[in-house]
Automatic annotation (TrEMBL):
It comes from the Eukaryota. The keyword Lyase applies. It holds the Pfam family SOR_SNZ. Its EC number is 4.3.3.6. This is pyridoxal 5'-phosphate synthase (glutamine hydrolyzing). GO terms for biological process: amino acid metabolic process; pyridoxal phosphate biosynthetic process; pyridoxine biosynthetic process. Residues 15-213 form the PdxS/SNZ N-terminal domain. It comes from Coemansia javaensis.
Length: 292
């Protein structure tokens, strides 16, 4: 790659990173139709990811008709999904004027190789399960990274998301505690860009916005994930199974903003009476008296 090409890639990535950093502290909501997208827009979402309903589940990129319908209804950034490694799908979505592309490994894959994202004009969201994979996705050109999971979107356990985030942050903390020799050795052993790893160590955080995903529908879970070091969350489409999805999303937005304020978080629980994952009441109004 010539010096001019390298400089062009750097400028393009800086522009995409500037856009992606505007998602820090926010939620991206998975939606199934324009009505859900409108609800998400009105109640705090920074972007939406359209997916097909269970009856018409897609094995490839997001349906272009669904994307167009949602883009006609909302002003939010709309994120299209493509199969892992499917560069042609990504180019089609880029031409369809989506704001961002997510390379999704749960769709039918065309191989283990990931898309080289730097030539694209629009930003990519990459998926990763480990710190090494996060560095790999960033090197490929992802300007947001989110956690991943092997199960279907609605079947994953949120506890697995917590465990993944904790492991990633523990590995980052260990990396940051090492000296320059240890950092260079880590980069070499894992075939990573040394300058990228050095940047993470210098900043003591993942260099791009890091989002948690995986059955996230609970405000208190969101607050906990933020305290662990996440920059935002991808809210599951299951949130619309709640009888009051508008209220739930408002509370998630409040938890993102006040995640370090237990008093305000307690106010969310007090106001709602608590949540179960199915949307009902989780906590009694008062505990029964202790037996004498």
């Amino acid at each position: 790659m010539s010096t001019e090409d390298i400089e062009s890639v750097r400028r393009r990535f800086w522009t995409k990173s500037y856009f992606s950093n505007m998602f820090r502290g926010g939620m991206i909501v998975v939606v199934k139709d324009p009505d859900q997208a409108q609800i998400a827009e009105e109640h705090g979402a920074r972007a939406v990811i359209p997916i097909e309903s269970a009856a018409g589940e897609s094995v490839g990129m997001t349906d272009l008709g669904l994307l167009k319908d949602i883009m006609d209804e909302v002003m939010l950034p709309v994120i299209g999904r493509v199969q892992q490694g499917h560069e042609m799908e990504a180019r089609i979505l880029e031409q369809s004027c989506v704001s961002m592309i997510e390379e999704n490994m749960r769709l039918l894959s065309v191989g283990k190789k990931y898309i080289y994202k730097h030539p694209f004009r629009i930003p990519f969201i990459g998926e990763a399960a480990t710190l090494v994979e996060i560095f790999e996705r960033i090197s490929e050109g992802a300007s947001i990274v989110r956690t991943t999971y092997p199960e279907d979107e609605e079947d994953v356990q949120v506890g697995d998301t917590f465990e993944m985030v904790r492991n990633i942050m523990a590995d980052l903390k260990e990396l940051c505690s090492g000296d320059e020799v240890a950092v260079a050795s880590y980069s070499q052993q894992n075939n990573l860009d040394l300058n990228l790893v050095r940047m993470a160590v210098r900043q003591r955080r993942i260099p791009v916005p890091f989002f948690a995903a995986g059955n996230i529908i609970m405000p208190v879970d969101v607050a906990m994930l933020m305290t662990l070091g996440c920059d935002g969350v991808v809210v599951s489409a299951c949130v619309f199974d709640n009888p009051r999805p508008e209220s739930r999303m408002r509370d998630i937005a409040a938890a993102l903003k006040s995640y370090n304020n237990p008093d305000k978080l307690a106010g969310i629980i007090e106001r709602t009476g608590g949540y179960t994952r199915a949307g009902g009441m989780a906590l009694p109004a008062a505990l029964p008296p202790l037996p004498l």
